[in-house]
Amino acid sequence: MRIALTDEWDRALSEVLPDLVETARNERLEEIEVADEHRTIRLRLAEPAADVSAVVESTDVETAEPPVARAAHVGIFHRRTEDGADPIAEPGDALEEGAPLGFVDVLGVSHEVPAPFDGTIEAFLVPDGQPVEYGQPIARLTSAE
Predict the structure, then answer these.
(1) Where does residue 98 fall: left (phi above 0), alpha (psi -120 to 50 degrees), or beta otherwise?
(2) What are phi and psi for residue 21, nearest 5 degrees?
(3) What is the pTM of this model?
(4) Which residues does 72 contact at the CB level (< 8 Å), separation at least 6?
(5) What is the b/e burial string over 37-52, where b = at least 16 CB atoms within 10 angstroms of the residue's CB?
(6) Which secondary-structure segment (H or E) carries 126?
(7) Other C-beta atoms within 10 Å of 143: how many?
(8) Is pLDDT above 70 for 124?
């Protein structure tokens, strides 16, 4: 799907783009491109990630993937609120469900990456400042239970 935008680029990004993403998901499109004569944004949509809150509790399965916090947006992952600041969270930190462990910058808008449950950060799987995809694991956690 290609849509040409010749004016009101900011309005398109804030108002039209979310509607296009929803339409693409409903229509099961894989890609959307929004452009004018100077700029182009191309979105490639991925299948939604599995719900990390529905962790299977089983001691019989040793190959089960450890619980992770996942990116809910496509953008750039950051562990700090600004350059030179301390990281929001570190490996070994105990977090309550919903506490931020970093954020994803999407076109200048920050979206927190919350802890999906009470637990401890084992490791970050994405370096600070690196791009992330929707549903990509950001950090591995151990449950507080």
Answers:
(1) left
(2) -65, -45
(3) 0.54
(4) 104, 111, 113, 134
(5) eeeeeebeeeeeeeee
(6) none
(7) 13
(8) yes
Q: Amino acid letter at 20? A: L
* Token output for 96: 């309550």
Q: Of 112, 110, 94, 90, nearest to 102 (Cα)?
A: 112
How far apart CA 132 and CA 75 sit, in angstroms, is: 6
Q: Helices (DSSP H) in 15-141: which residue ranges?
A: 17-27
Report which of 66, 50, 52, 58 is spatially closest to residue 115, judged by C-alpha positions: 52
How many CB atoms are located within 10 Å of the residue 67 CB?
A: 19
Confidence band for 99, pLDDT divided at 50, 70 and 90: very high
The pLDDT score that the predictor gives to residue 23 is 74
> Which amino acid, 39?
R
Grade residue 24 by pLDDT with cuts at 50, 70 and 90.
confident
DSSP state of 98: T
Per DSSP, helices labelled H in the chain are: 9-11, 17-27
The tokens of 101 are what? 């462990």
